[in-house]
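Section 3.1 - Work completed
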Amino acid sequence: MAALSWDRGTLLVRTDFSRPQRWDTLLRALHTPSDEGFTAAFETVDDPEWRDATAEQLIADAPDWALFIVADAVALSSPELPALVISIEDGTARQLRVTPAVMWAVENNLSIANMDWEDFASAADSDGIYRGRT
């Protein structure tokens, strides 16, 4: 696999290529502004070279500080499209599923260090998905 360009800020990495319509639906949802006008800021990596890449493979490719979103089989097969958000700080990776409607809150606040990972992780529902209640 080719190395990802981590100098572009938050990345949205597509790893599931078996559901093209669901991928399109996820992209539309992520680009739809919140009621307040916010959207997540990310660069899209839509390269079949990353097909079926695991979170561990993506983490291994990342620097010690990174924030990225993964459109994997779990996300694209679920009606809610809960993408996997991975935050790496000081080489420690943490993972959380986030619905598209609130991705902006997670991405915007983590990328500028306005809120901490735990603010979102502790507000996730019992199924491990953050749906916007902090």
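Second construct:
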Amino acid sequence: MTAAPLAVLERDGPVVRLRLNRPERHNSLVPDLLDALLRALDTAMRDPAIGVLVLEAAGRSFSTGGDVAGFFDTPRDRRRAYAEAVVGGLNRVILALLDLPCPVVGRIHGPVTGGSLGLLLACDLVAVTPQAFLQSYYTEVGFSPDGGWTAMLPARVGEAAAREIQLLNRRVPAEEMVRLGLATALVTEDMLDATVAGWTDALLAKQPGAVAATRLLLRPVAQSGRIAAGLETEKQAFMVQIETEEAHRGMARFLGRAP
């Protein structure tokens, strides 16, 4: 029996939908999923006829970030290399989304935790349902932040809010995501698809060159390489932290396993 693809790319005219497809694990990020996302984005990057990319996920969660069980089940002497594959792969996906010539619309229907924040931050427009929320979990599990929590989030919400949200591991509900500028609109679940479709139709009705230029000019930090440098700094710190006893015990406690 053929396994379901971890990332699904569907084309409907000028609209492409990219779906995280690991619902049984809440679309938690592992190397194979990140590789599949990167291959799909490479396909989209090379197709000039694509006008909008919709980023979405199967199941109840958008993504719960790096798979903690994946880290814990990796032998301790190989965790640094595994962290480099996961965080490095996530960084490449985030940068590929930012570099797309077309707008990216996020369809967020559930939790966004850990490094999956970076996928949301790479979107131009984001619709969230009341079931969506944002939470870091790093200080709870014993990890170092990745996925743009330090490289991208402070520029969006301010340094004080970024510190408070992460250090206290505070959950940010959907309505606050909109207020902080992390999402564009809060909609009911039955209006989610209509909202996304309305945005894609509106974007496709605009002049594509002007849309592309506007998108580029709105991301000067990405253009200058500061986001890439910040993501690399996060990766290096993560690889150091993952080897600590604190991280080992934190993962065991989070998973309900013996350290």
